[in-house]
Amino acid sequence: MTEREETRRIQFTGKSSYIVSLPKQWIMELGLKQGDQITITREGRTGLKIIPSKEQTKVSAGEEAVLEIDYNDDNSAIVRRLVSLYFLGYKTIRMKPKGDRLQPGQRSAIKSAVKGMLMGAEIISDSVDGITIQVLVNLLELTIDGAFKRMLHLAKSMLRDSLLAVREANLELAKEVIDTDDEVDRFGFYIIRQLKIAIQNEFMLHEMGFTNARQCLGYRLIVKNIERTGDHAVLISKDLLEFKESVKKEAMEKIEDLSDFAISVLDQACLALFKEDFIQAEKAIEKASEVTKFEKRIIEYVKAIRDEEEAYRIRRMTENITRIAEYASDIAEIVLNMNVEKLLRKRT
Q1: Cβ–Cβ contacts within 10 Å for residue 233, how many?
Q2: Above 50 in pLDDT, residue 59?
Q3: Which of 83, 91, 151, 177 could form a disulfide with 237 if both were Cys (CB 3.0 to 4.6 A apart)?
């Protein structure tokens, strides 16, 4: 019997009811108290499922936070504090001035952060006397896997579009890639918020599909690697905006081959994550080591280029894409750590 199992006797009370007691430790860990409601569901002919009612599963971190802002507070510092409160799972965040009013720049920074960075957050009150933000998203409507898959898709699209922008010398497309990075970050912030809530609430942990808090740490590291993938696509786009012209067609073909390889390793590592597959993760790590073959081809090609500026740009794009392949390998390593115990049990 595990720590999540208990044997209790059914008792008869009154004329038509049966009762069963619940362990005190479970009640405390779920944040329940006397008088709270639970839902009992019959599952087939042999099972009963008992869960706290939705009203009782709200985040224990707190419903509301109040952040006071000083006249001289830097805008970026204010945004960092706001993001931290979002991560902690507060449903309502009130930003109020310590003095008479918020400064125009402070209000603008807060509103931009809510719109561009915090998924599910809406401003429900806005004045010089303060801004009230409410997080409206239902944590179980957009799952961590769902948000992560969307984030992964956006990051891969950014990489492909950044190279297409360089090939076509398309400055507008390069700017779109840079703008898309905010969307990737929004999904990343949302996932981090969910993970922090899961760690604080065992019921939410299991509802989100995790068996223990260590898995949340693994997911947090993986999300960071996807964020970095988007960052490198942004660097490639900024290269085009700086030089405003493409590179030679032959060079672009070699760089695109490297990009396709990096994306294939990323896909394999993330597939191992979704399938919780130790063996698949090992294969992704082995495959990632082959990135040096593509890198060497480009390095040999660059040696023959006389235009130092173009050679520099090609090397820089190559480094950015190689880093993405390394991130994919890091993801696979994390998947190994998350699933190694399953392999041991299987062999036992």
Answers
A1: 31
A2: no
A3: 177
